[in-house]
Amino acid sequence: MHHDRIDGVPVIWTETPGPLEATLMFGCGLQDETFRTLGVTHLVEHLAMSTLPRLHFEHNASVSLTLTDFTCTGRPEQVVDFLARVCAALTDLPLGRIEQEAGVLAAEGSGTADPVTAELLSIRYGTQGLGLASFNGPGADRIPLEAVRETVARHFHAGNAVLALTGPPPEGLRLPLPPGPRTTRAPHPAPRTTRSSWHRADVPGPGLLLSCDLNDQAMLLAAHVLSQRLTDTVRHQHGLSYDVGGSAVYVGPGRGERSIHLDVREGQEKRVAELLWQEAVRLATEEPTEAELAEEREGAREYLTDPRTADMEVVERAADLLLGETHLDSETKLALQAGATPAQVREAFAAAMESALLLVPCAVEQLTLGRPDGSGLPAGGCSERTELPAGPQYRPPLLTRARFGAARKVRLVVNADGAWWQDEEGVIHGFPYSEVVGVEVHEGALVLQGRGNCYVPVVPDLFSGLGPAIATVEAAVPEALRYPVSALRATG
Questions:
Q1: Which string of DSSP letters, residue by residue, matches 228-265?
Q2: By CB neighbour count within 10 A (0-12 exposed, 13-18 middle, 19+ buried), where does 386 fall?
Q3: What spatial distance separates the first Cα and last Cα of the chain, rounded to whole Å?
Q4: Is residue 382 within 8 Å of residue 454, measured between CB atoms?
């Protein structure tokens, strides 16, 4: 692995066969946004790429939870031209194209994580940082222009960039980015949910989220063992699922989240969720066999020693440099896995299970499960309140209550401290105004989004006589957090 510096940008490169691949990486992603500015990094990326002419070689750009990449594969002179054009575009963004690119983003509709992992992150962290992964936000056309400018100035400069290459820097390579200091990320918001619990959401299948150190090779082996056991049990033995997937999410130096998620045959959501948790508890309480670990070590060796992974290695090293994370090369990973005993693998997984979040589709109404220590696994929710606070109460219109018995349970309270409502199942949602991250403004209605993955509808179609409530909210919530409904949202 070789290290250079061009125009103040660190360059990491290694020799691999094939055409030259380049990844210009910036240390910013979705986790650096707020609910109010959600999508701003993706908008910056689209604005920059919109300046490129038609190119007859492979190129792309993407925004992840933590990083933004501009990539291309081609002849050296093509790579030089592509990188120069991207840097020039980031230095002078075509802000006049915001309306068009906002529409393109709405059409693209892609997320930064699979839907199960995204929802689990939102439960763990709330509507902030990594927890923003499951939200659409106000809409790309509601991102303030100043937020676009601030994002470019803060993140897209030479001090916050790294270039990864699969060959030596080609002749004439320049990276004309403005100078700037390395972006110092504030510590990621503390988890809002740290103890194991189960949750329901509109997701395609069940999933599990575990807090851990992503460099812990014993924990990595445990995750692979669990995935294989689920494949053997849920797919091959019972025929209830096709795919067992997983994700690794970086949180900070020495901190991360690992997810395991499954698709599921219709009507079998509860059974698959139970099998997932059952296998996780078994791994936390019983050591894996030497044969299981040997199989996973062999799989890791096959993958990490394949010459085709060298290009991924250089990109991972560049990412770790940007993120301030300790980089483990392939040889080190294999050595650590070889030294991990069955007891260490179980202990690593058992420690992670203390923070386990189990997510199930809405079709699963109730679960009765136990933690590894024998205590019951509690159900989680966005609010721990068991009754509404004091204050003016608003109820659904009389006709609605007469026609639908469940509507008689529904209540809304808006007082000087915050807003709360009780839904048709009697569950209470809400938060104080200090927890508001955004307010969607409709004609005569407001929808408050809270930091704790929860919302409150102050909507006349749902509640009568809301004039005083709307006035209270407007006086309490800063205007900067309010925004009109996106013009890009589908209607009808």
A1: HHHIIIIIIIT---S-EEEEEEEEETTEEEEEEEE---
A2: exposed
A3: 56
A4: yes
Sign for the pseudo-dihedral over CA of 152, 155, 159, 160: negative
Specify the 3-state DSSP secondary structure of 97.
helix
C-alpha 103/C-alpha 101 separation (Å) is 5
**pLDDT band (50, 70, 90) for residue 189:** confident
Residue type at 141?
D
- Judge whether residue 209 has pLDDT over 60: yes
Q: Are 6 and 173 spatial neighbours (Cβ–Cβ below 8 Å)?
A: yes
Instruction: Work out the percent of the chain whose per-residue pLDDT is above 70.
Output: 99
DSSP label at residue 173: -
Token output for 367: 């679960």
- One-letter amino acid identity for 261? H
pLDDT, residue 491, reads 47
Give the pLDDT confidence of 130-148 residue by residue, as tens digits. 999 999 999 999 999 999 9
Assigned token pair, 96: 């006049």
The string over 55-84, giving b where at least 16 C-beta atoms fall within 10 Å of a residue's C-beta and e elsewhere, is: eeeebebebbbbbbbbbbbbebebbbbbbe
Q: Can you tell me whether residue 269 is helix, strand or coil?
A: helix
Q: What secondary structure does DSSP assign to 115-178, as a single string? A: HHHHHHHHHHH-SSGGGGGG---S-GGGS-HHHHHHHHHHHSSGGGEEEEESSSPPTT----PP
**pLDDT tens digits along 2-17:** 999 999 999 999 998 8
How do residues 414-452 score in pLDDT, each as one tens digit? 999 999 999 998 999 999 999 999 999 998 899 999 998
454 pLDDT more than 50:
yes
- Give yes or no for a contact between 176 and 88, defined as CB atoms under 8 angstroms apart: yes
The two tokens of residue 84 are: 């120069």
Distance CA 26, CA 47 (A): 16
Give the integer Cα–Cα distance in Å for 7 and 179. 9
Q: How far is CA 340 from CA 218, 421, 465, 482, in A?
A: 6, 50, 64, 52
- Does the pLDDT value for residue 310 go beyond 90? no
Q: CA angle at residue 119 from 141 to 259, to 5 degrees? A: 130
